[in-house]
Amino acid sequence: MAKMAASMVESKDDQFRKIFKFYKRRNPPPDYSDVIDFSKAVPSDKIVAAKLEPAEVSDVEAESVGLQPVRDWRAFGLKDYPGFLFISNPFLRGSQAFWARQCLKTYTLKPNVCNLDMHMSPSDTQDIWSKSVHELSAAPSGKREPKTLLERLRWVTLGYHYNWDTKTYSADHHTSLPADLYLLSLRITAACGFPGFNAEAGILNYYRPDSSLGIHVDESELDHSKPLLSLSFGQSAIFLLGGICRQDAPTAMYMHSGDMMLMTGQSRLLYHAVPRIVPAPQGEAALEREGVSLKVGSVLEPVSEEDWLLCSSYIQSSRVNVTVRQVLGPGQSFPDTQSAHQRTDAGQLVGYHEDKVVGNHDDQSGKRMRSSSWDSGQT
Ligand code: OGA
Ligand code: MN
Hints:
Helix content: 10-25%
Strand order of the largest sheet: 1-2-3-11-8-13-6-5-4
CATH topology: Jelly Rolls
Number of helices: 11
CATH class: Mainly Beta
Bound molecules: N-oxalylglycine, manganese (II) ion
Number of strands: 14
Largest sheet: 9 strands, antiparallel
CATH architecture: Sandwich
Order of helices and strands: HHEHEEHEHHEHEEEEEEEHEHHEH
Structural class: alpha+beta
Distance between the termini: 23 Å
């Protein structure tokens, strides 16, 4: 009885959950008039122009990772959230296509880890992209087509592979972070006043139109003085930024393709969530392939016509979010106690339900990412 009363008080005061449900609602759809749109933002009583460090990144360095000169970036902060930084799509025209392709075709390759590894063998998940191209071209016409691997992909981990069960990273489960993503992260964080950021872990979330990401705090990294960087491609999202407790009502904002966020300082450990995916304002042109001219020294590569076909069809209805994290501070190492829990290989996790594994450092439900097709019959 006492327990029930306690949970009632908790849900009544849980302003975050209330607003999360508001934006997640399908019928009737929510009113979006309170959602901040930084693509149209001007400084106001809530929004402040953020100061960047253009001298830290040369125009050539920015261009080599597909970014505009830093002096042209439109960067904002929020008055009530010191340490939170939002950069409205600073990518050069055409260059997002390369990063989206990397997220779908390259970062999904082994030795990186993905949700499909939890119940499939490494040989079955070893080339999600090519298998999906093949599945699509071989799809029997007329019949209800089974979902491609790409459509079933929910997350990929890079670098120190996040263990969803123990909520830890560990020295024993590490592969190298893709060099291009490392460099992109280094340039962005330097421009934002965090030189020497050491990108050590990445989590990619793949959102279908009905996916959401539960309320959580990213606190597993051992050094919270380092920023958490978030980048998105494809369809837009409603992102909720809350406070240090669930009673604090969150602020809603759009995250469009190419937008970036940094959670630093006092904002590093705030609750946040993605209750909803929304269509990109420009529709299919959320991201274009044309327009980029690649110079010597660029980490970008041309995206072939063939790659673009699958990439653009995926991104037409989906969103990819990449978060990049520095796990350890300078000279820091993992405490011994963590190695007792770590996951040694993907095979150990066979038998877990996908939904449970995806889920995690989350709200009471214990689930991190959801999509309504999984919700039915499971929650
Ligand atoms: C995360 C996260 C937000 C997003 O992966 O920890 O908060 O916009 N992602 O997908
Ligand atoms: Mn997060």
